[in-house]
């Protein structure tokens, strides 16, 4: 298995299905348990964002897993794609806990968590939808 | 449904142990929005009962999401408001790392296990 794509329906807890597949593939490439767990959390956040924010009429999220590297698998690359309305990642403000504690809106952490847990994160977004590409070395 | 695989349970189980001067809240399962709401419900009840120090033992929780965490931030805000304290213990390394990424650990101390937390938090 070098590359597989799941088309997951936008139903509650689909993020858990995606995270289970991430875990199985990461295990197959002998990623350490703590790193696997970090990948799972990042996948959960990316899927929830697609569920919640994409407003896609196609009620599906596409999650692609790619194992990169030669004989010895080195990196797991995961792409979470929706066909929704998109957004401007550059305009999203970095959340700060001091401010969130005072403000009525406590949310806005998912992207920060994804970036903190994965080695490399790239977000492409536009009127065709949003694609989050994130990788983690074994 | 068995509680063995935390990922399989849609609903979070919450248990409380009321002690002298502090209450320990145990969670089992996925802390998503419903899970977070359930913890908040229990925490606000304990606050109403007069508890000012709460320890959230997340030993039975292997996965959380940002919506659930935002509800935990509401509880932290409430604890600060009433001059109380909320601590966490028995977090998975990933949940602990996430709380550090967010800076949450500054406002809600994280302890490795329950005995360490209780000895530090008990007034
Ligand atoms: N797939 C997406 N489609 C459209 N907009 C998105 C998508 N992902 C993120 N966004 C936008 O980026 C913002 C920030 O996302 P982020 O995950 O950091 O926070 P949040 O989802 O609002 O709250 P939290 O993740 O803390 O529950 C969202 O509020 C939304 O406006
Ligand atoms: Mg989010």
Write the SSE topology.
The complex is a heterodimer of chains A (138) and B (123).
Chain A: E1 3-9, H1 14-28, H2 33-53, E2 60-68, E3 75-82, H3 97-102, H4 110-117, E4 120-126, E5 129-137
Chain B: E1 13-19, E2 22-28, H1 33-48, E3 53-60, H2 66-81, E4 85-89, H3 93-102, E5 110-111, H4 114-121
Parallel strand pairs in B: 2-3, 3-4, 4-5
Antiparallel strand pairs in B: 1-2
Bound molecules: adenosine-5'-triphosphate and magnesium ion.
Structural notes for this entry:
The complex is a heterodimer of chains A (138) and B (123). Chain A has 4 helices and 5 strands; from the N terminus they run E-H-H-E-E-H-H-E-E. Chain A is α+β, with helices and mostly antiparallel strands and 138 residues long. Chain A has a single domain, classed as Heat Shock Protein 90. In chain A, strands 1-2-3-5-4 form a 5-stranded antiparallel sheet, covered by helices on one side. Chain A is globular. The N terminus of chain B is likely disordered. Chain B has one domain: STAS domain (Transcription Regulator spoIIAA). Chain B is of the alpha/beta class and 123 residues long. A 5-stranded mixed sheet of chain B has the order 1-2-3-4-5. In chain B, strand 3, helix 2 and strand 4 form a beta-alpha-beta unit. The relative contact order of chain B is 0.18. Chain B is 41% helix and 24% strand. The longest helix of chain B has 16 residues. At the A-B interface, helix 1, helix 2, helix 3 and helix 4 of A face helix 2 and helix 3 of B. Magnesium ion (MG) binds next to helix 2 of chain A.
Kindly name the structural category of chain B: alpha/beta
Major sheet details of chain B: 5 strands, mixed
Q: In CATH terms, what is the fold-level topology of chain A? A: Heat Shock Protein 90
What's the CATH H-level superfamily name of chain B? STAS domain
Enumerate the spans of chain A where pLDDT stays under 50 for 5 or more consecutive residues.
none
Beta-strand portion of chain B reads 15-25%
Radius of gyration of chain A: 15 Å
Distance between the termini of chain A: 16 Å
């Amino acid at each position: 298995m070098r590359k597989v794509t799941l088309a997951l329906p936008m139903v509650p807890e689909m993020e858990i299905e995606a995270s289970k597949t991430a875990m199985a593939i990461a295990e197959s490439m002998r990623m350490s348990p703590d790193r696997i767990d970090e990948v799972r959390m990042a996948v959960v956040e990316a899927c929830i964002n697609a569920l919640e924010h994409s407003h896609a009429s196609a009620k599906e999220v596409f999650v692609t897993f790619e194992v990169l590297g030669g004989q010895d698998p080195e990196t797991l690359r995961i792409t979470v794609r929706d066909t929704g309305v998109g957004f401007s990642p550059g305009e999203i403000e970095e959340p700060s806990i001091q401010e969130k504690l005072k403000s009525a809106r406590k949310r806005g952490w998912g992207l920060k968590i994804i970036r903190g847990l994965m080695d490399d994160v790239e977000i492409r977004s536009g009127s065709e939808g949003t694609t989050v590409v994130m990788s983690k070395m074994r | 449904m068995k509680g063995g695989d935390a990922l399989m349970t849609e609903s979070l189980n919450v248990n409380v142990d009321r002690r002298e001067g502090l209450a320990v809240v145990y969670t089992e399962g996925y802390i998503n929005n419903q899970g977070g709401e359930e913890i908040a419900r229990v925490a606000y009840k304990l606050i109403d009962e007069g508890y000012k120090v709460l320890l959230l033992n997340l030993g039975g929780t292997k996965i959380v999401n940002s919506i659930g965490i935002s509800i935990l931030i509401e509880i932290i805000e409430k604890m600060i408001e009433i001059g109380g304290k909320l601590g966490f213990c028995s977090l998975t390394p990933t949940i602990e790392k996430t709380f550090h990424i967010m800076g949450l650990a500054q406002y809600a101390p994280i302890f490795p296990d329950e005995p360490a937390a209780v000895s530090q938090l008990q007034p």
